[in-house]
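Summary for the lay section of the report: proteins are chains of building blocks that fold into shapes. Here we show the chain for Lipid II isoglutaminyl synthase (glutamine-hydrolyzing) subunit GatD and then a coded description of the shape we predicted for it.
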Amino acid sequence: MDAPVIDLLQLYPRDMNIYGDWGNVLVLRKRLQLRGYDVRLHEYNPGDTFPDQVDLIVGGGGQDSGQNKIQADLLQLGGRLRELADDGVPMLAICGLYQLFGNFFKTHTGEVIKGIGLLDVDTVGGPKRLIGNTVLESEEFGTVIGYENHSGQTYLKGGTQPLGTVTKGEGNNGHDSTEGARYRNVVASYLHGSLLPKNPAVADFLVRHAALRRHGSFDDAPLQIPFEEQARQDAAARPR
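The coded shape description reads as follows.
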């Protein structure tokens, strides 16, 4: 019997893939394989043909120049991404793509980079970079651990829920103790590091919903990876 297939798409890896964000793709592929799935990995860069079948989408961070390179293409793709999100496709959007999944990013020089409005958030360039190890508490995922490095300050609007509440670090904007944003099965965050190796609960949330949507079932038995929790404890204990 052939293994069930999951189609995993990495958005804009050529321009939006810094601070270890490629590791998120590796973690999702490995955890799917450990659960018996055959993973088909797709890459989408500006001008490419968007795959017909997509079960899980991951996008990373990038500098302002990278955001400018992908902006026009992302705006053309925005309607499709919003439809997929509304239909329950799980997505992980990190840093730069988190900003462009929102309404806009206004840089510190006053340039406005329009987003696709998948998330009701606004981002403005701040006077300093928010950098360092970060820990937050999430009702869905427990303690979430990562590393932030961003000058954009993001503000949640219209009842948009955060990924969690910051206990170490600055989070979305350094003012309201929120970090990240949530919409249906979309997880958005500033946390690099990469995020998913340190946070298996977030990875398995994405995997679970991809499998349920594609195949209608999912074996939720925890994976036996003994060093995961020790790695999380070590990461959480690092100084800011």
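Put simply, here is one thing we learned. The domain at 5-236 is CATH 3.40.50.880 (Rossmann fold).
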